[in-house]
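User: Need the bound-state model for adenosine-5'-triphosphate:
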Amino acid sequence: MNDYAIDTDKLCLYYKRKLALDHLTLKLPRGGIHAFVGANGAGKSSLFRVLLGFEAASSGQARVLGHDSAQLTPALRGRIGFVNEEHTMPTWMRVRDLTRMQQHQYAAQWNQGRYDEVLRHFNVLPEQQVGQLSRGERAGLNLALALAQSPELLILDEPTLGLDVVAKRAFLEALLLTNAADDSTIVYCSHQMDEIERVADNLVILERGALRYMNGPADFCERVQLWVAEFPFKAPDVWQLPGVLQVQPIEGLTHIVVFDQDDTFGARVKLLGARTVHCMPLGLDRAVNAFLAHGHAGARRAA
Ligand SMILES: Nc1ncnc2c1ncn2[C@@H]1O[C@H](COP(=O)(O)OP(=O)(O)OP(=O)(O)O)[C@@H](O)[C@H]1O
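Assistant: Bound-state model below.
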């Protein structure tokens, strides 16, 4: 058995002339919650479409649970759960009937305890019609159905998009309370860093269809630092220094976000004429945003 839940090798996907996945090589180990992050258009949904067999790769390899994603059998598909922001379900059905249908379809693997546990969290009643549920309740029902299937791989593609703060929290709590990540691999795609910070064991950053980073979120925060410098006169061009991701003038000070620099960076800033310079840690939100903004600016410069 392959040790990876997702294993791609130089995977490319073109939509006509548009390159969505650019020689993506990604080895995602089994188990845990993996947060996928990337700017709009980074290729996250395209990757999931290839993995689920909805799109054929233009070149390269994509394997999911050890199998070629272009040749997934219905049995293999049944081992993969997918939830996206649309929470598409038959609106005319009652929750009770939809539940029965899914219990029947996934009889061998159905986990009733987990289903009830998640659904309880959202106060959804069996006699309610799916179309009458609020957006948050529909997201909860969708999560309950997906988790009850006991998928080996569960892909959650921006599942909380459009939900209010309370519903978002309920969704995350439900995901965590089931401990589903103990025996499944969960891919959680979101633009919300507070969500990522709460749930992720592993952070995967995609940029323009390629892998830019994969490791723990805490490790990422350690590698991104904020240096705050005070220049007595006009600030020099600090972009000439190594590893600079972002430069912002804030209240007379120059905020410099850098990647993979050690304490000698402060000495370099001083050499440029700074009167004072301090290093400060950064939260995941700002660290990831600076990283992505730099990549975006780089792409614009290259174009
Ligand atoms: N059906 C399509 N036809 C043509 N181009 C497409 C199609 N779907 C996606 N693309 C392009 O492929 C690239 C990757 O898009 P994709 O939707 O995978 O990104 P994403 O990371 O999921 O973005 P977002 O965070 O906005 O959902 C984008 O440049 C997009 O314009």
